[in-house]
Amino acid sequence: MSSQKIIFVSLIILVACLEVGGDILFKKWSIEHQSGLLVVGLLMYLVGAAFWAFSLRYEYLSKAIVGFVAANLIFDVLAGVFLFSEHLTITQKLALP
């Protein structure tokens, strides 16, 4: 794998982790009503957006968005299930609406 691909994949994983971290803080904020959680979540989104912009230097937007959305979806579902004890229906497990 080329060094540019490694940088790109690393940035996409970092961006997905930052956005999921923000999502987790937003969910905790909605439960606990602590404004600090909202602020830090927004900052994580902002930093993630900056890294997202840099990731686009290494790959086409059409390819970058697929990797980001896939990683984000997987990480968010895992966070919901393991951190917030959310339950998935059969249709959700099959990725159906």
Total discrete domains: 1
Main β sheet profile: none
Note the run of SSEs as H and E: HHHH
Task: Bin the helical content.
Answer: over 70%
The number of distinct β-strands equals 0
The coarse silhouette is: flat
Span between N and C termini?
36 Å
Radius of gyration: 15 Å
Low-confidence stretches: none
> What's the number of helices?
4
The amount of beta strand, in percent, is under 5%
- Average pLDDT metric: 92
Q: Give the helix/strand class.
A: mainly alpha
Structural description of this entry:
With 97 residues, the protein is mainly α. The protein has one domain. It contains 4 helices and no strands. α1 runs antiparallel to α2 and α1 crosses α3. The N and C termini lie far apart (36 Å). The model has no long low-confidence stretch (mean pLDDT 92).
Short structural description:
Helix 1 (3-32) runs antiparallel to helix 2. The protein has one domain (3-93).
